[in-house]
Amino acid sequence: MERLKDFILGDRHIQTLKEFSGQKDFYLVGGTIRDILLGVEPRDYDFAVSGSGIKFARSFARKIKGAFVLLSEADDEARVVKDDFIYDFIGLIDNDITEDLRRRDFTVNSMAINCRTLEFFDPFGGFKDLKKGILRPTSENSLTDDPLRVLRGFRFSLELGFKLDRSFFKLAKAVDLKGVAAERIGYELLRIMGAPASYKEILKMNELGLFLQIFPEARKIMEDDYLWGHSLGTYQALEKLLQQGFFRKIEPEFSTYFAVEKRIPLLKIAALFHDVAKPDTFLLKEGEVHFYGHDTKGAKIVKTLGYKRLKLPRSDVKMISRLVKEHMRLHLLATNQELTDRAIRRFFRDLEDDWFGAMMIAWADGYATAGWTRHLEEVFMRMIALKRKDDAEPKVERLINGYDLIALGLEPGPKFKIILQELFDLQLEGKIKSKEEGLKIALEIEKRL
């Protein structure tokens, strides 16, 4: 506890607030207290103040020439931002700090200290739970008061390394996420899936039926024990693959791909829902089961999940949709007895930056299906070797462009893209060495289309 008091006395932000507030009581509360007691430098400060939190924040923002942000008029909550530092303020109901703490999510976030008197408040045993590493809901209403707290509980468990108390799972069964804003759900889910070892928490969330609530469009696959079990297995395999194994040795490609923010959780979403359309495309033909087009239909479904259920930006949805659409392609390439350089180059061209993620999902899918991936690894190494070779060579200028085709008398249209790409493939393969040769072959291709 001395650590907390020393922090209060030595922190310049709190001293600035003390000078501003005069004799008015204000409390450092919530996650800020938790972080300080854990020895973690807080990223922002949460305060509870006597009287109106909004008025206090507005006045303080004027005093320090900071930006004022209204968070919730109903909850009397506002934020002040100054030089990238964040102060959050909430007004106390009837000036009662205990009542404020009772309304918070978990006991470890339900502690406070009076910044003027240094009196410590812990009416719900948060400090004891903190020392034991337990996440316990503050009250029986904690989760139903704000259903998003169920997801926050799983996130805190992963980020803090704490164990969720049994009471959490009991109370979580009564939670309904349907009214929660999709943006808030998306934020928490990506934080959960961004953790290095989230699989066990994903299983617990699944057992609580949370995915059924969040993703109703995926209900059919979740109700199929075999298909959903395979999807969860693919998620698990991908998570292990991210930590160790085949792809960690592929550098600098591995580090370059995952240097982009959010790629890990987005890749996990694509892995979890790569077969989402299989129930809709099931076909029994001559005693054999087929799922024709499940990749293409699945890409459309995950677009809905991304846009509607998680409110992800366009670039994120494009990534997961493309990975689902193309997840069968590498299996087909790997089993092709005559895999050509042209097919390999086309794969890299179509997948753009996501070729690495596509390979990882194909590997995880194969491992979850049969536990055998050697054939994939051999093909992947051949493909990557060709890409590295192509990337190392000077950029090849196309011998033929669209204007050349127009001059040849061809009418512009969708066929142009096909003709130009085939000509360029032939050029890369050394089968076209001059513009004259290219124009002659262009006419032959046009006749075929």
UniProtKB/TrEMBL annotation:
SMART domains: HDc
Entry similarity comment: Belongs to the tRNA nucleotidyltransferase/poly(A) polymerase family.
Gene Ontology biological process terms from the UniProt entry: tRNA processing
Keywords: Magnesium, Metal-binding, Nucleotide-binding, Nucleotidyltransferase, RNA-binding, Transferase, tRNA processing, tRNA-binding
Keyword 4Fe-4S: no
Domain HD/PDEase, first and last residues per copy: 223-379
Name assigned to this protein: CCA tRNA nucleotidyltransferase
CDD domains: HDc, NT_ClassII-CCAase
Cofactor: Mg(2+)
Upper lineage: Bacteria, Bacteria division WOR-3
Source superkingdom: Bacteria
Record has Cell membrane as a keyword: no
One Gene Ontology term of the molecular function aspect: nucleotide binding
Pfam families: HD (PF01966), PolyA_pol (PF01743), PolyA_pol_RNAbd (PF12627)
Organism: candidate division WOR-3 bacterium
PANTHER family: CC-ADDING TRNA NUCLEOTIDYLTRANSFERASE, MULTIFUNCTIONAL CCA PROTEIN
